[in-house]
Specification:
Number of strands: 5
Distance between the termini: 34 Å
Number of helices: 2
Helix content: 10-25%
Radius of gyration: 15 Å
Length: 87
């Protein structure tokens, strides 16, 4: 079982993908690097997801009263990380 997430406005939708179907969705390292390139000066438009500062309930996401943006970043060797920045 693989859980895949997709931002959906203010929420995230989760999908349960059967293992025997995963191979058809596999990304090459080169394609991942093209889709999620490294950037030095990211903007809010580059974000995959945004955690609003002061959002009600749950865990504290930000102490600085600034929203926090998240995005994937990949190199051409298959190394990917989930990065964050204030936005």
């Amino acid at each position: 079982m693989a859980i895949v997430s997709k931002p959906d406005g203010q929420n995230v939708t989760l999908y349960d993908i059967p293992e025997d179907q995963l191979e058809q969705y596999k990304l090459s390292p080169e394609k991942a690097a093209e889709m999620f390139p490294k950037k030095d000066d990211r903007t809010r438009d580059d974000a995959t997801a945004v955690a609003k500062a002061g959002s009600a309930g749950g865990d504290v996401q930000a102490y600085s009263n600034q929203d926090i943006c998240y995005a994937w970043e990949c190199d051409g060797y298959g190394n990917c990380v989930y990065v964050w920045w204030y936005c």
